[in-house]
Design brief:
The protein has 125 residues and is mainly β. It contains 1 helix and 11 strands. It has one helix at 28-31, and strands at 4-7, 10-13, 18-24, 33-39, 46-51, 57-59, 67-72, 77-82, 91-98, 114-115, 119-124. A hairpin with a 5-residue loop joins strand 5 (46-51) and strand 6. The longest helix is centred in the N-terminal third of the chain and has 4 residues, at 28-31. The chain is globular, with a radius of gyration of 13 Å.
């Protein structure tokens, strides 16, 4: 069974930083596409960043230059380093996995196979 567990959320001031982690069951991080999504109340779930089986990354335009997705295959852990956080980025952040392994950067949220429960990020002004 596939399990994804996010951690690292919390409250920060505008301009602050957080690093989120997603612990996965064995081999999930290594062979699947992995993404971070976020969803604020009343809004659609949006893709933040994606990393594929080869370690190729894609970041949403809104976070380019500030957020970095990475993974450690040996530790089965996905990361999202978030810098210069903005209040509008307050949301529940989710880790997701897609069995496709590649070409997932444009796959909508409904197309991802596995999800964690999320970790809350709150950015105060």
């Amino acid at each position: 069974q596939v399990q994804l567990v996010e951690s690292g959320g919390g409250s920060v001031q505008t301009g602050g930083s957080l690093t989120l982690s997603c612990a996965a069951s064995a081999r999930v991080i290594a062979i699947y596409c992995m993404s971070w999504f976020r969803q604020a109340p009343g809004k659609d779930r949006e893709r933040v960043a994606t990393i594929d089986i080869d370690g190729q990354t894609s970041h949403a335009d809104s976070v380019k230059g500030r957020f970095t997705i990475s993974k450690d295959n040996a530790e089965n852990t996905l990361y999202l380093q978030m810098n210069s956080l903005k209040p509008e980025e307050t949301a529940m952040y989710y880790c997701a996995a897609d069995r496709a392994g590649r070409y997932c950067e444009f796959t909508p949220a409904t197309g991802w196979d596995y999800w964690g429960q999320g970790t809350q990020v709150t950015v105060s002004s």
